[in-house]
TrEMBL record:
Catalytic reaction list: 3 propionate 3-nitronate + 3 O2 + H2O = 3 3-oxopropanoate + 2 nitrate + nitrite + H2O2 + 3 H(+)
Keywords per UniProt: Detoxification, Flavoprotein, FMN, Monooxygenase, Oxidoreductase
MF annotations from Gene Ontology: monooxygenase activity
Protein name: Propionate 3-nitronate monooxygenase
Cofactor(s) required for function per UniProt: FMN
Pfam annotation, one family: NMO
Annotated coiled-coil segments of the chain: none
Superkingdom of origin: Bacteria
Recorded family membership: Belongs to the nitronate monooxygenase family. NMO class I subfamily.
Length: 337
């Protein structure tokens, strides 16, 4: 494995704010590895974070969303906007009426940024990058990691030339990395998924999804993973950039379970079950990133108002393991004894 860390617990990239530079640096100094989340940031903001992480002197990774849009017809987009209008009206927000199907999240600019910065580890989510991009990153010394959710995706990533796999189970919080979001996610436990991937691909594996205890980590390692990656368990740490409403919701007894939903972004993601999921999941179409952009102003307004009924409270099934503590403490707590 080209990336060897003392601690077999890494910090996952969490787009939208939770993955701060401080969190990434803390993960490295604890003996693991942390990832900046490139998704939803402008190239300039990502460049500043890369510079800050690089100046710290620690190894780090950067994650990008590989372009894999889910197109949506305008009529379906408008119909969902009409369903959401009462919530938007409550906050004085005007919802768009044209889907942004072509948004690639600044892919080319961000890729060039990573090449220029010679980022130690680069990971991809949502789909496969072009083979030329993988080779270019490897030529400048980057280790390329591909997030996969099935053994079929793992084979495709290996064929592409990835250096390691991040194997994500459906228990993971936030967006599923699935290449085929239109298909239901297979219900599989992380150790079983790691084992099945291990049988068909020889690449090193980082296991992710539902890690909430040292026992979970041990089980993933026993199944064949070299290390694990955690996200939800770090949301309440001192270095986390998660919003205060999000942090509070993780320990609020009114939220008693998580659910997979496409209601917020048009792509399957796991979060705490709240009013928005219950009310709109049945009406929500597939359509990413169009639905993400549609609901984004509403979610931002709700966050500012501390209205957790309308916020995407991303969380994995092990969310109750999230504690208010230093990130290093959380990571070391999850390491096998």
């Amino acid at each position: 494995m080209k990336v060897v860390t003392e601690l077999p617990v890494w910090a996952a990239p969490m787009a939208g704010g939770p993955s701060t530079v401080a969190l990434v640096v803390a993960a490295a100094r604890a003996g693991g590895l942390g990832f900046l989340a490139g998704g939803y940031k402008t190239p300039d903001v990502l460049a500043a974070q890369i510079a800050e992480a690089g100046a710290s002197g620690v190894a780090y990774g950067v994650n990008l969303f590989a372009p894999n849009p889910i197109g949506i017809e305008r009529a379906d987009f408008v119909a969902y906007a009409d369903v959401l209008r009462p919530e938007a009206d409550r906050y004085g927000i005007t919802l768009g009426d044209e889907p942004r199907n072509a948004d690639d999240d600044g892919w080319d600019a961000k890729l060039q940024l990573l090449l220029a910065a010679r980022v130690p580890v680069v990971s991809f989510t949502f789909g496969l990058p072009e083979a030329e991009a993988v080779r270019a990153l490897q030529e400048v010394g980057s280790v390329v990691a591909q997030t996969v959710t099935t053994h079929g995706e793992a084979v495709a990533a290996a064929d592409l030339g990835a250096d390691l796999l991040i194997v994500q189970a459906p228990a993971a919080g936030g967006h599923s990395a699935t290449f085929t979001p239109e298909q239901p996610l297979e219900a599989v436990e992380l150790p079983e998924l790691v084992s099945s991937v291990r049988q068909v691909v020889a690449l090193p594996i980082v296991a992710a999804g539902g890690i909430a205890s040292s026992g979970d980590t041990a089980a993933a390692l026993k199944a064949g993973a070299r290390t694990v990656m955690v996200g939800t368990a770090l949301l309440r740490t001192q270095e986390s950039g998660a919003s205060e409403p999000h942090k509070a919701a993780l320990i609020d007894p009114q939220f008693s379970e998580t659910a997979l939903t496409r209601a917020f972004t048009g792509r399957p993601a796991r979060g705490l079950r709240n009013y928005f999921i219950n009310q709109y999941e049945g009406s929500a179409p597939l359509g990413y990133p169009a639905i993400h952009h549609l609901t984004s102003p509403l979610r931002k307004a709700a966050t500012a108002a501390n209205d957790t009924t309308l916020i995407h409270l991303w969380a994995g099934t092990g969310y109750q393991a999230a504690r208010a503590e230093p990130a290093a403490t959380a990571l070391k707590r999850l390491a096998p004894s």
